[in-house]
Amino acid sequence: MDSRTDPPAAPERLTSQRPRSAAPSWDDLRIFLAVASHGSMSRAALALQLSQPTVARRVTALEDSLGVTLIERGVNAIRLSEAGAAVLEAASGMAEGASAAVQTAEAYRMDVGASVRITATASVTLFLSQHAPELSRAAAPHQIAFLPTRRKLNLATGEADIALRMRSLPEEPDLFVRRIALIAFALYARSDDPTAPVIAPPEDPHLSMQAAYLERLRGQRPVAARIGDMPMRRQAILAGLGAGVLPCWLGDSDPDLIRISPPGDVWSEDLFLVTHHLARRRPVIGTIADALAALFKAQAALLAGEARTRPAAP
C-alpha cells in the first residue's frame, strides 16, 4: 500500500529514530527554542549567556530524551529536521507563556533592582541619551537600560519593556501603541563643504524611503560611501567624508553642520511608543511611558525640523 494512505505516523518517524532516555527538561526545550530562533548555536549561546558547548550538549540531551533528531548539524550551519520543525511549532507558545508568567509576577513585587529596557533605533537612542537624566529621575528607583537596535525586539517574550518604533504601526496582538512624535530628516553637510559628495544608506532606493529621498536630492553628486548606522554617518559627515541624511534634531543642533536640503524639503516618519499589556502592570512602565511621551511632546518642534535657528545652505 502507498505510504501516503497510512494513518499519521508517530512523531519519531519524522526523522531518524533515536532511543529515548529520561523525560525531557523544560530548560533544554527553552534552549532548543533559542537555537531555532537565532539560527545558530553560537548566537543562541550569546543570547542565553551560556557557552556554545553547553548549548550543544543541552540540545543533544533534549534529542535523547525525545528520541528524535531535532537539529541537523552542518559544517557552517544548522537546520531543523522535520521533527525539529514540528516540535518548534508545538512549543512556540511555551516561551511566551513563561515570559508572561515572569512579567505578571514582576508586576506584583517591588523589585528595586529590575531595570526598564527601552529599545529603539540608534538615532532615537542617541536622542534619549541626551535626556537620560530626566528619564532616570522618572524611573527612580529603577534603572533604565537602553537597547539600540534596528531589530524589532519581542515585547511579548520580554526582550524589552518599551519599544519606540518608526514607519508603521505594530501588528502584534496585546500591544498598546500610541503615536508620540513626528521625526524629520534632511540632507546635511559640513558647513565648510556644502557641495560635498554624499554618504548614502546601503538600501536600494526602490525599497527604502530614506535612500529614495537621498537619491532625489543628490543630483550629480557622487556617492562617497554607504553607511547605514545614523550616529556613524554623522561622524563621517563631520570628518569630511561627504553629506548625508540625518534627523533634523541632530543636524540642526550641530554648529559644524548645515542643512543643504531645499527649504521645507524633509522626509518625515511617525514615532510610536509600544508596550505589552503584561508589562504595563508594572507601575514603573506606565510612569516611564508617560515621561517619554512628555519628552517628545516638549521637543516636537526640534524633532519635526521646525526649530532651526541657522539658515540652510543657499
From TrEMBL:
Gene3D superfamilies: 3.40.190.290, Winged helix-like DNA-binding domain superfamily/Winged helix DNA-binding domain. Pfam families: HTH_1, LysR_substrate. It comes from Alsobacter sp. KACC 23698. The lineage of its organism: Bacteria, Pseudomonadati, Pseudomonadota, Alphaproteobacteria, Hyphomicrobiales. InterPro entries: LysR_HTH_N, LysR_subst-bd, WH-like_DNA-bd_sf, WH_DNA-bd_sf. This is LysR family transcriptional regulator. It comes from the Bacteria. Keywords: DNA-binding, Transcription, Transcription regulation. Residues 24-81 form the HTH lysR-type domain. The keyword Methyltransferase does not apply. Belongs to the LysR transcriptional regulatory family. Residues 1-22 are annotated as: Disordered. GO terms for molecular function: DNA-binding transcription factor activity; transcription cis-regulatory region binding.
